[in-house]
Amino acid sequence: MATARPAQAVRTWLDHLAVERGLSANTLAAYRRDLGRYLDFLAAEGIEDLGAITEATLTAYQLRLAEGDRDHEPLSASSRARMLVAVRGFHRFALADGLLASDPAAGVRPPRPAKRLPKALPLADVEAILGAVDTETTLGLRDKALLEVLYGTGARISEAVGLDVDDLDISGSASDGTVLLRGKGGKERLVPLGSYARAALDAWLVRGRPEIAAGATDPRGSGGALFLNARGGRLSRQSAWTVLTRTADRAGVTRDVSPHTMRHSFATHLLDGGADVRVVQELLGHASVTTTQIYTMVTVDNLREVFATAHPRAR
């Protein structure tokens, strides 16, 4: 097999991406920039033959990206991952094009970006949002019930707007209500309804929903949907999102608020209140407790803050 110089092989790959794959000029420029740094590293290591690159070379390159050098600052995990994706794509092409006998990057995995902590709202902000709904109007009754369900059950927005009236069981006492949520993969779970969500749902079902359903003009119908739009059809995810963001604005909450923020807040406030992580796992519908455990990191941060301000030896 003839030897190939890394720089020439990179130019060949970029030409392939431009002509055969039709990538945009911006994407090609990004690949050229990322692989330019890779070529600089190979040159500094004295590697002039593509066949001399080994998995150890790629490992050393990853380390250099993480630690930086005199010409470059250390890169974040996401930036390193992006650059390694470009390098892996280049080596796959070189192998397919007959420039390499084996792919030295095949076993190299880009670093995982650090997990971002969920953003939970302080309880005061949640209460301000829930208190900012105008329940004197029919749609206000719906909005109040929707927001109480989102925060009171930890439902995903798709689960909330997918609810039918028959998914509620509020026939017993005020403390016995439940809602049937259908999560990812069609998995179902029963979640208790607190008294606030129960009261808001009662008001919507008795005084709000019948009025909208009676004047329905949506040709698609409601299909028994719990939450209706103004024309009597099922409320969409986008409309439910708008309900929340507009109410947050009305409440003067300046933090970014989304339906998932309410879910994060539900989980974090439960854990702050002493709930077991496995109970929260069941309520959220997580398949693995590992997914739920990220919320415990939030509560540890809260513990640190309390410790720092309250303990005489903390500072």
Work out the strand percent. under 5%
Helix content: 55-70%
Overall residue-averaged pLDDT value: 86
Radius of gyration: 27 Å
Please identify the structural class as seen in this structure.
mainly alpha
Describe the protein:
By secondary structure, the protein is mainly alpha-helical. The protein is 56% helix and 4% strand. The protein is built from 13 helices and 3 strands, in the order αααααααβββαααααα. The chain has helices at 6-19, 25-44, 55-67, 77-96, 123-131, 138-153, 157-161, 195-214, 237-251, 259-272, 277-284, 289-292, 294-310; strands at 168-169, 178-182, 188-192. A 3-stranded antiparallel β-sheet has the order 1-2-3, with no helix packed on it. Strand 2 and strand 3 (188-192) form a beta hairpin. Helix 1 packs antiparallel against helix 2 (25-44), helix 5 packs across helix 9 (237-251) and helix 6 (138-153) packs antiparallel against helix 8. The longest helix has 20 residues, at 25-44. It is elongated and about 80 Å long. The protein starts with 5 loop residues before the first helix and ends in a 5-residue tail after the last helix. The mean pLDDT is 86.
Quick take:
This protein is 56% helix and 4% strand. It is mainly alpha-helical and 315 residues long.
Give the secondary structure arrangement, pairings included.
Layout: H1 6-19, H2 25-44, H3 55-67, H4 77-96, H5 123-131, H6 138-153, H7 157-161, E1 168-169, E2 178-182, E3 188-192, H8 195-214, H9 237-251, H10 259-272, H11 277-284, H12 289-292, H13 294-310
Antiparallel strand pairs: 1-2, 2-3
Helix pairs in contact: 1-2, 2-4, 5-6, 5-9, 6-8, 6-10, 10-13
